[in-house]
């Protein structure tokens, strides 16, 4: 009986405070990396912001208030970071290899949301993927998959592989 009462109280707590994002939540690291990729080319487009909001909301099945809290936590973490390691090490502890590869795909979706890919965006994703332990092959495959999804024709040549 006590166990049912405790479960009932926990469900009330969860229902009344869904917007709390705890420090150490790996979703903060994901959001911070999304923000860093979005800002990599020096231009943050509305299409990129919409893409990030939509992907994170759908992926984690968040309501708007929890999404806004996660975005705020990610912005705070990103503004305090000096490099990617803080976020990638947290993600490596919590995500499987497949999940890390999928995250790289999500980052490419942010890049292509504005219809163009810059050298800085390439570099940022290369560094993040490397720190996540995602191979160059998997990073490039994800980029090509996302480019095809967005109907972007990629250039051929060595610069494409950066």
UniProtKB/TrEMBL annotation:
Domain Co-chaperone DjlA N-terminal: 27-142
Transmembrane segments: none
SUPFAM superfamilies noted in UniProt: TerB-like (SSF158682)
Pfam family, one: TerB
Protein's name in the database: Co-chaperone DjlA N-terminal domain-containing protein
Species for this entry: Pararhizobium antarcticum
